[in-house]
Hints:
The chain is an alpha/beta fold.
Amino acid sequence: MAKIYLHKKLKNLIIVCVVFAIVFILLSVLLLSDSFSNEKGYLVGDYNDVISSVPNISLKNPKINEIAMLGSHDSFSDKITSSSAIDPANSGIMGNKVFAAMTKGLFVRYSVTQEADALGQLSLGVRYFDIRASLYNGEWWTKHGRLSGKLDDYIKQILQFSSQNDGEVIILDFQHVYYGGLSVNAFFDYLSTVTVEGKSLYDYVPYYASEKPIDSLRYNDVCNGGKTGLVMLFNCEDYDYGFKDIDSTYKKYFYDRENDVRSLWHPTCNSKKLIKEIDNETALLNSTTEYDGKLRINQTQHSFQADGIFNAIFGWSLLNIADDYNLKLLENSNFNAWLEAMPIFMVDFATSKKGNFNQKVNDAIFKYNENLCR
């Protein structure tokens, strides 16, 4: 009897150890692995004229806030790895080095939202960029939880594209900028120093935003003389001062994001709930003229929230979740209604090729703009 009892006890111990080992391995993979299970997206494309090739666009001269565009969320996060430095703007547990080391895989998988760099995204039809940047060791870096690449490199790619292509509208939305003890004036000054062929971003803004309200800004204002032009937004929401308080000489090139943009963030990672919220936002915008003069952005991204935490974790990464989800958004019966209410369609993994998403979304946006300019 004693032998049988010991045998059962040993067997139970072995089972517990095996279960513990499986759970440990699973958690290690979930928390430490930064590899992605998604299909690879496109890194380069041929949508360099996705706006300029719309028939009659210069003749019809539509308002900028009526033109449909593909946007990328956390646009310049493609270079984040587990060895990337933590964003110095992070506070609390997200900025804790021990926590970051223990969860480095999870941290990275839910920080990287785009796979292509700026030039790749531009060639794949992206015309709206959600930009976040931080000053780190005296240099400006792009970020999303961790630092990605040097901001200079992305800006130079935008300048390169702008100099080589005509008639395209590019929106640069500087949403979150951490100055590291400097000021917004220092950041605006810095932007003037990043040049390609002697031109900075400011040279591609052929109007003063301070003199041209965004609700009257039109295609020909931005693409003056048929050239590619920029629309730049700056967000002061993170700071203890408003846009009106900025005294930089370069302020005249920027619109006030808080005042000139309608972009509702949906705090959910439940797909059905997210689509319902997009429908609700569309209904709201259609019920009032309050936001007609603003840039209207469709926020379609899953966020890391408790209402679907299991699905989020086992979705493996933001790239993987978007790889599966983006096509469902595009094929939704309300997609065109969404575009009409919110012409900027912003997604994670804008260059996904699953189900030919990138090709199909560019075709849908082109068709929408074609109808707009009839």
